[in-house]
Every structure is written in structure tokens, then in C-alpha cells.
Amino acid sequence: MTTISFPLAAGSRSRNRYVAGLRTWRGVTGLVLVGTVALAGLLAPWLTDADPDAQGPQALAAPSGDHPLGTDDIGRDLLSRVLHGILTDLSIILTAVPAGALIGAALALLAGTSRAADLVVQRLFDLVLSFPGLILGLAVTAILGPGRWPVVIIIALAEVPYFGRQLRAGVLVQREREYALAARVGGAGRARVLLRHVLPNAVDPLIVQGAVALSVGVFIEGALSFLGLGVRPPEPTLGSLISGSVAYLDTDPVLAAAPLAVTTALVLGFTLLAEALNRGARS
Predict the structure, then answer these.
(1) Membrane-crossing residues (predicted)?
(2) Which of 114, 106, 122, 100 is nearest to 220 (CA)?
(3) What residues contact residue 38 under an 8 Å CB cut-off, 6+ apart?
(4) pLDDT tens track of the chain, all 283 residues?
(5) Number of domains in the chain
């Protein structure tokens, strides 16, 4: 019993290092950036009463009391569209990244059952990794068309091999530890050893990968929407707002500045969180 519980204590120490990493300036800055943007999106209905899809008579209007950030090229309130765009982006990445993590983890555990399964899973990961994220997006949207769920599928598929490889590496190390060997000697089956003993001690690196994946998810959504392959209009996303502002960069830079600033804050925040968690894990 003592042998089996020791790695769990080590896992607790590893998680404490992650918490310590979040207390550094990188972790605090990342939490503030992501938290501020997320809170703004969640409070969108209370921060502005303007309908993000309602067209008005004043196109490309300057900032005013009625429209704090002005209006877009067809008279829609820019502040409302940015805030609701945050909500759309967060709903996409917070659905896609956990889905990619679960699929990747399931495949990594499958790879740990036998050499044949490991070979198949590794080749599957290589196949997905051979397609850059945008090329994968073009392939999926060519089949399914643009929309919210195709974007979710694209982000999830792009993240599967990264989560899977991280967990596979942890499983390969942990299954040779004394506690796993003791469990097998005690009569536990391979599946029980993997799920009950190895998995809890191999998942910690996925925390860092999760922060990285959220940052990549924002980028993929933005790139797909910028190319017109993302969420269908008129539903706002940060990428589609940036795309719609390109033609007016000279005459109305605010139209691009607001969604660009929010996107930069999200990506930077998740990147800083990933770096803070990684440094904490190594300390």
C-alpha cells in the first residue's frame, strides 16, 4: 500500500508546483489578461444593451455615448460585437480543447495496452501532424462547410496528437515504476493498472498542454474566420471582426484595433499561463 501511495504524493507535489508557477508574474499576468477578457465576454449582455446583429443608419460612426467604440461598415455596434465575439470564441475553444484532450488521452491509453495498438496510434498521430492547422481546416470545411461545429472539430483534431503524445510519454514512464509493477504482481489487470494507478500520475503534463492548446485554439478560430471558413455571419467572432476591418484600416483603424487588442490579450494570457505552469513543473 505504501508503494502505491507514494507516487500519488509525488503527483500532489507536482500540482503544488503548478500553483506556485501561477503565483509568479507570468502566471498572475496571464490570469489577469484571460480573466478580464473572459469576464467581459460573460458580462456582455450587461455591459451593453445593443444587439450585436442589429444594423443601424450610421455606418463607420465614430465612438460616441451610444456607441463607445463606434459602428462597423453596416452600422452595427462594435463594442457589442466584440463582447459577443469573445463569448463565441471562448465557447468554441472551451468545447474543442477538452474534446481534443479526451480523445488524445483515450488514444494514448489505448497505445499503452499493446505494441500493435501503440504502432497504430503513433501512425495516426503522425498523419494528423502532417497537416498544418490551416490545411486541416481547409480539408474539414471542404467536407462540412463553414460553421461553429466544423471549427470545433478542426481545433479538437489539431490538438489530439499533442495531448496524446504527452500522455503516452507519461504512461510509458509511469507503467515501469515500482508501484505499477507491484500492482501487476498483486494480480491487477493491465487495464486496471493503467486507469487506477498509471493515469492519475501521468496526467500532470496535460495541464501545461491545455494552456498551450487554448492559445492555439484562439489562433485557429481567428485564422479560419479571417479566411471566411469559420463561424457563419452574422454571428460575431474575433477573427471575423478583424477580417471585416481590413478594408478600413486607413480610414477607421479603431474597427480593427478593438478585436486585435482582445485577441492579443487572450493569446498572450494563455501563453503566459502555459509558460508559468511549465516553469512551475520544472522547479
Answers:
(1) 25-47, 90-112, 124-143, 254-274
(2) 100
(3) 86, 90
(4) 333 333 444 455 556 777 888 889 999 999 999 999 999 999 998 999 899 999 988 888 888 888 899 899 899 999 999 999 999 999 999 999 999 999 999 998 888 778 898 899 999 999 999 887 778 888 898 899 989 999 999 999 999 999 999 988 887 777 666 666 666 666 666 666 676 666 777 777 788 899 999 999 998 998 898 888 889 888 999 999 999 888 888 888 888 899 999 999 999 999 999 999 888 766 6
(5) 1
Quote the domain boundaries for residue 255. 2-282
pTM given for the model: 0.86
For 42, 150, 210, 269, the CA distances from 95, given in Å and listed in that order, are 16, 12, 12, 19
